[in-house]
Design a protein that fits this description.
Radius of gyration: 27 Å
Number of helices: 27
Number of strands: 31
Structural class: alpha/beta
Strand order of the largest sheet: 5-4-21-20-19-6
Distance between the termini: 50 Å
Length: about 800
């Protein structure tokens, strides 16, 4: 950096890929000239990263497509016809319309959509203050049971009664494993920090196995790629479990000491057998008698039975492990091949590799997106239980691979709860109920929609559902940095500041640091930070007393956390100190965060409950193989829609970000396209470059077809991210099953929702990541489609 340059730290706008990077923004003469990797203290050398999105992000503030002034719709909704207006006019008119809705329908007649793609840059002060506004206003939160990235939370709740173990760990742990299985994700292409650890693990001698749907960059880098049919992952896991048991490659001591494997289960009820005092019961082979024991681990002799059938006081029962042997019995090698498509020799070799590894790690980077995903994520932990790896150094299972190390918790509740910590005035709706309620007006009308973060018309499945919903609204407000697909349907569009233009506390770990984000430049045009927008709107709504602090005062409140790693630091972490030091380490790199170490498990048994009493009534006490919703499987294929529709993310876009960046568009192939396997294309009479229509009962998309052997037979793929206007016609999101909708809901997810409400309270669920998503399944890839060739060829 030259002498006439300065720098600040910025939360990378590409954050939603869950790498959670802070980048170094270099400024010269009041203009951003480039971005670089962040500089951490010496002990953290090697922890900083930057990808192509981070490098290119410095151009975003100067992009000609940026929103620079408030807009008001003047044409029909969706026409894209707007006029520029002043901030005073925009905020005055929005407040007037909100107050009119409140007078006619009550404050709950306005819904607040607050869905950041990742902590910062979106989950900053503006997001917190918009939640505060929703609370003091008393609006509707329509996001419960949304159903995104939530399979790991389900697994954590029913295995550990704690979701933290499934959400975060320091990914560098895998660097010391001897076998790393990447299951259902593409970190080499999409997650730089995770990719770095995968590379280091391989350099250290680990074998890398990638299990997934298509041959992507991670598959190309791995030592072995094992493709599986859509949604069949649990069948592969259960088959591996049977092989490990049949070949005596299990850790019996671990099963007895750390899991519920020895617990006797009543054959009449499926519940754990308990004695008169409520203790659990096992069978001791040494005494040939029942043995009572309490909550906890390592409190049973090695002579307790794992197999067999017993009778205790006239009650027939079996150990959990015996029931598990019976549960996996149908999953033979041949059946595994039939269900998953994995050849028998490949399957056996996979089992042998996993059995001989001393410290295997299964890492599942949020790439399982089917209605059966909860059981798939839950099943992964079976392999850790059988091998005794969960809770051991350099080994285990993680089902939410995020490269941010340990969590750092700030005092956000004090900001979001506008009238006191214990009060939440919003009405909370499950996503499945929100859309029907808008259209029916029952049990109460919802006539206003304030979109604070996110881009639901573009990024959320089923675009048509959103258009129908907005058309029933009296007021739609969009706060964004671009005129997005959501903004084009809004009545007012308000220009938000980019991370480069606002002051924030970076709200995630960054490898154990609290980082201050300072503005690199002044906001462009008439752009304002969302914190200012929300505060000014609140004043016009008569709620100014709750928004009477400066940005610095709010940030000081945020730092007043009782989270021990931050609260215990001397000198204290204050805004003044951060302004001098820019970043402050609160955790040291030798303390690689692994929530499973020590196995402090808050279940009723104190053990890993791979047999869940709470799910006996649902018929899935063990992790189970369930059918997909729509995706074709070995036993299900629609004649009308015979293909899986897959809309995975590629590395050049981030959600809908960077889709107007010329370089990223160039790197992404210049235009959106569909892809399918040449074998399928030949059968359909489709050549490379042909214009095709991909369609199902919900919608369609028209794009040129590219033939690609990386796409498995039976799948049609269109990249996630491209905007609707960039397609010939339609868009990929038209085809997707709506997340959290009635057709995705099952009895299991309903029970999960009710139990999460019981644990957290429905008022708290909107402020708790894991709880808010309880009760819905991520079905983005669980879609069926068909494809047909159109007459004209692209470019003809």
């Amino acid at each position: 950096m030259s002498s006439n340059e300065s720098f600040v730290y910025t939360a990378c706008p590409g954050w939603g890929d869950h790498d959670y990077c802070v980048i170094k923004t270099i400024v010269k003469d009041g203009k951003i000239v480039r971005t670089e990797k962040a500089e951490y203290p010496n002990k953290f050398l090697g922890c900083s990263h930057i990808c192509q999105k981070g490098l290119e992000s410095c151009k975003q503030p100067y992009n000609e497509h940026r929103l620079l002034t408030p807009l008001k719709r003047v044409g029909e909704r969706g026409s894209g016809q707007f006029e520029e207006i002043s901030w005073d006019q925009a905020l005055d008119e929005i407040a007037e319309k909100m107050l009119a809705i409140k007078e006619k329908y009550g404050p709950e007649g306005v819904a607040f959509w607050n869905f950041p793609a990742g902590p910062p840059p979106n989950n900053g002060l503006g997001t917190l203050l918009s939640s505060r506004l929703g609370n003091v206003w008393g609006g509707t939160d329509p996001m419960l049971a949304y159903g995104l990235d939530n399979g790991p939370q389900y697994a954590g709740m029913y295995l550990f009664n704690n979701q933290l173990g499934s959400l975060m760990m320091d990914i560098r742990i895998i660097e010391h494993s001897d076998l790393v299985i990447i299951w259902g994700g593409n970190p080499i292409e999409n997650q730089q920090r995770v990719a770095c650890s995968v590379v280091n693990a391989k350099d250290n001698g680990a074998k890398i196995i990638d299990i997934g749907l298509l041959f992507d960059a991670t598959a190309g880098y791995a030592d072995q790629f094992i493709p599986v049919r859509p949604g069949s992952d649990a069948a592969l896991v259960l088959s591996m479990c049977k092989w490990l048991i049949d070949n005596e490659k299990i850790d019996r001591e671990y099963l007895i000491g750390k899991t519920v494997a020895p617990h006797l289960v009543r054959e009449d009820t499926g519940m754990f057998l308990r004695d008169a005092e409520g203790n659990y019961v096992a069978w001791d082979n040494a005494t040939n008698a029942a043995l009572s024991f309490g909550k906890g681990q390592d409190n049973l002799p090695e002579t307790v039975a794992l197999e067999g059938s017993f009778e205790v006081d006239g009650v027939a029962c079996k150990p959990v492990f015996q029931l598990f042997i019976e549960h996996v019995a149908p999953f033979t090698t041949d059946e595994c091949t039939r269900l998953t498509g994995v050849p028998a020799d490949v399957f056996v070799k996979l089992c042998e590799e996993f059995a001989k590894a001393e410290s295997p790690y299964i890492a599942a980077p949020l790439g399982i997106r089917y209605r059966n995903q909860g059981e798939i994520y839950r099943s992964f932990y079976l392999l850790g239980c059988l091998r005794g790896t969960i809770g051991k150094p350099n080994a285990g299972v993680i089902t939410n691979v995020i490269g941010s190390s340990a969590p750092i918790l700030f005092n956000n509740y004090a900001i979001t709860r506008g009238t006191g910590f214990d009060e939440n005035n919003m009405k909370h709706l499950r996503q499945k109920d929100f859309f029907p309620q808008v259209l029916s007006g029952k049990p109460y009308p919802i006539k206003g929609f304030i979109k604070c973060t996110g881009n639901p018309v573009h990024n959320c499945p089923n675009r048509g559902r959103w258009i129908e919903t907005f058309n029933a609204m009296d007021l739609v407000v969009d706060i964004d940095i671009w005129l997005t697909d959501t903004g084009k349907l809004a009545d007012y569009v308000l220009p938000d500041a980019m991370p480069f233009e606002r002051k924030e506390i970076v709200d995630a770990a960054n490898f154990g640091h609290v980082v201050l984000q300072e503005p690199a430049i002044e906001p462009m045009g008439q752009v304002k930070p969302m914190a200012w927008i929300i505060s000014e709107l609140a004043k016009r709504l008569g709620l100014g007393e709750y928004f009477n602090k400066s940005i610095d005062e709010w940030l000081e409140i945020k730092l007043q956390t009782d989270f021990p790693p931050v609260a215990s630091i001397e000198p204290k972490v204050t805004l003044e100190r951060l302004e001098k030091e820019k970043m402050i380490p609160v955790m040291w790199p030798e303390q690689l965060f692994d929530p499973m170490l020590g196995l402090r498990i808050p279940t009723e048994t104190g053990r890993i409950e791979f047999y869940a009493e709470r799910l006996v009534n649902q018929g899935v006490p063990f992790p189970s193989f369930l059918e997909t919703l729509e995706s074709p499987t070995a036993d299900k294929k629609s004649a009308e829609y015979p293909y899986q529709f897959f809309s995975g993310r590629q590395r050049f876009f981030m959600q809908s970000m960077f889709t107007n960046d010329d370089l990223m568009i160039e790197l992404s192939g210049k235009e959106p396209s569909a892809r399918m396997n040449p074998l399928d294309a030949a059968r359909e009479g489709i050549d490379d470059g042909d214009l095709v229509e991909v369609y199902n009962q919900r919608g369609h998309v028209i794009a040129p077809m590219r033939l690609d052997e990386a796409i498995p037979p039976g799948t049609v793929q269109v990249w996630f991210g491209w905007r609707q206007s960039q397609f010939v016609e339609g868009t990929y999101s038209e085809l997707l099953v709506p997340l959290g909708s009635e057709e995705t809901i099952t009895d299991i997810s309903n029970q999960w929702f009710e139990e999460a409400c019981g644990v957290f309270g429905i008022e708290d669920m909107a402020n708790n990541y894991g709880a808010a998503y309880a009760g819905g399944w991520d079905t983005i890839w669980d879609c069926a489609c068909n494809v047909c060739k159109l007459e004209e060829k692209k470019g003809a």
